[in-house]
Design a protein that fits this description.
- The protein is of the alpha+beta class and 509 residues long.
- The protein has helices spanning 3-23, 50-61, 80-89, 101-107, 117-133, 139-157, 167-182, 192-208, 211-218, 229-254, 263-273, 284-315, 317-330, 339-342, 346-359, 392-395, 438-455, 497-502; strands spanning 64-69, 72-78, 96-97, 368-369, 374-376, 379-381, 386-390, 456-460, 485-489.
- A five-stranded mixed β-sheet has the order 1-2-7-4-3.
- Helix 6 (139-157) runs antiparallel to helix 7 (167-182).
- It is globular and about 65 Å long.
- 43% of the residues are buried.
Length: 509
């Protein structure tokens, strides 16, 4: 028989088998568009604007629908009601971490973000405990953030009011806060090792949000055999892990079990306590990956939110003016803002919440997975099925936020101008997998943004009406576009910021 004919017959049978495999077992999964053999619904899906695609499918199939990326089904939850019902009401069933081929190749089930089962429970419990021990949500970490905020102001002053891109400076500031907890180390903004690390992390963030990574996740067999930016991502991650391991070894040499200095010390002490337990999750692999997880979560989203916030404040100078007026009234210009001030600054608090809602940095959070066969509404989702959650569909739900496409701090203010929260506000996700560093990030956002607006006027390099706030990526992360601005000092004197930061924070009457 002609070899070409054999190939065509074989390929046709393979396609038929693939189509059957996709349909088989689909029985009680939510409805969705008909997948093509092998490639699934990829051609019907805009990987550069996931929210647009989700909206289109939800109009046809409802708030819970099934897509195929490759040959595996993924159930998508769209809208507040579906997300709350899954992550809160059925939190345990939806608490698994779904597959992500590229990240799984690096993390191998270790750490806190990409792990499952007992590893996840132990690493998450330990991480939360130690973060709290070293001050997350307390005054001790607040002092560290205020100190870093002063260093940030000093770096911004060095720009001397000339146009600059704030990306790197904001990322360094956020990274130094989490570094103080994990390493008890502060990196100088000019440190070459630190600079290289930040560059690698920035490169990996862009790669992670690329369309190519979506392809790799749909067809994991490609990862080991074809070139692509995923190889750069893996290489950068390996270099970061090597740097973390070097820090761990330094800690091992100087460890004092009676006086733990930071997160790594506490983990090493726990490792020593459980060294004879064969079931212990406290291993070097879990320490490296958990450290990397905390750095990633504590750096990128916070710095990107701040960067988006500055862009929006330039776009809407009337909002900025009201925030600065409130800062002048509550804090003044002679001391550094503190967390006590937030309760007396409803408009500033509302602006911070609206920045997070509108920016929607974690637009589609990392995939979840159902941990057992789960009855959800009128469907039966098999154990191990990946779940995609659209936080954008929650933050842009008109039931929770009238005119959600408009940046409006009024979304978080009542008729009397008092701050009001919203159940539809989920920038850190919700349920069992809610971000472990939520309170730390909220403190950073408030303190960094208020001190910047206390000390500087934000001057755009273009007319505010011409500022484009459209995100550059709408995949895993929604990142602000690159831009420049001028930080014009409000005062013509040199403030002793470090002294002010460490002085008692006494709100003005």
């Amino acid at each position: 028989m002609d070899p070409v004919l054999v190939f065509l017959l074989s390929f046709s049978l393979f396609l038929l088998f693939s189509l059957w495999a996709q349909s088989c077992g689909k029985g009680k999964l939510p409805p969705g568009p008909t997948p093509l053999p092998i490639i699934g619904n990829i051609l019907q899906f805009n990987v550069k604007n996931t929210y647009q695609s989700f909206c289109k499918f939800s109009k046809t199939y409802g708030p819970v629908f099934t897509l195929y990326f490759g040959m595996k089904p993924i159930v998508v939850l769209h809208g507040y009601e579906a997300v709350k019902e899954a992550l809160v009401d059925l939190g345990e069933e939806f608490s698994g971490r779904g597959a992500h081929a590229v990240l799984d190749k690096i993390n191998k089930g270790h750490g806190v973000v990409f792990s499952n089962g007992n590893t996840w429970k132990e690493m998450r419990r330990f991480s939360v405990t130690i973060l709290r021990k070293f001050g997350m949500g307390r005054r001790s970490i607040e002092d560290r953030i205020r100190e870093e905020a002063c260093r940030l102001v000093d770096e911004l002053r060095k720009t001397k009011g000339t146009p600059c891109d704030p990306t790197f400076i904001l990322k360094c500031a956020s990274c130094n806060v989490i570094s103080s907890i994990i390493f008890k180390t502060h990196f100088d903004y000019a440190d070459q090792t630190f600079l290289k690390w930040m560059e690698k992390k920035d490169e990996n963030t862009k790669i992670l949000c690329s369309s190519w990574i979506q392809v790799c996740n749909s067809f994991p067999m490609l990862i080991d055999y074809i070139p692509g930016c995923h190889n750069t991502f893996i290489k950068n991650a390996a270099e970061e892990n090597a740097l973390i391991l070097e820090k761990i070894k330094e800690h091992q040499e100087s460890l004092d079990i009676n006086n733990p200095r930071d997160f790594i010390d506490c983990f090493l002490i726990k490792m020593e306590q459980e060294k004879y337990s064969q079931q212990s999750e406290f291993t070097i692999e879990n320490l490296i990956t958990t450290t990397s997880d905390l750095f990633g979560a504590g750096t990128e989203t916070t710095s990107s939110t701040l960067r988006y916030g500055l862009l929006l404040l330039m776009k809407y100078p009337e909002v900025t003016a009201k925030v600065q007026e409130e800062i002048d009234h509550v804090v003044g210009r002679h001391r550094i803002p503190c967390m006590q001030d937030r309760g007396r600054m409803p408009y500033t608090n509302a602006v911070l919440h609206e920045i997070q809602r509108y920016a929607d940095i974690a637009s589609t959070i990392l995939p979840h997975m159902v941990t057992r066969d789960t009855k959800f509404r009128n469907y039966l989702i098999p154990r191990g099925t990946n779940i995609l959650i659209s936080l954008t569909s929650v933050h842009y739900d008109s039931k929770g936020f009238p005119n959600p496409e408009i940046f409006d701090p009024g979304h978080f203010l009542d008729e009397s101008g008092n701050f009001k929260n919203s159940d539809y506000f989920m920038p850190f996700s919700t349920g069992k997998r809610i971000c472990v560093g939520q309170s730390l990030a909220q403190m950073e956002l408030f303190l960094f943004l208020t001190i910047i607006l206390q000390k500087f006027t934000l001057k755009p390099v273009v007319d505010p009406k011409d500022i484009d706030t459209t995100p550059t990526t709408s995949g895993l992360l929604s990142l602000p576009p690159l831009y420049q601005l001028c930080f014009i000092p409000v005062l013509n004197r040199t403030d002793n910021l470090m002294t002010a930061a460490l002085s008692p924070a006494i709100p003005q009457p």
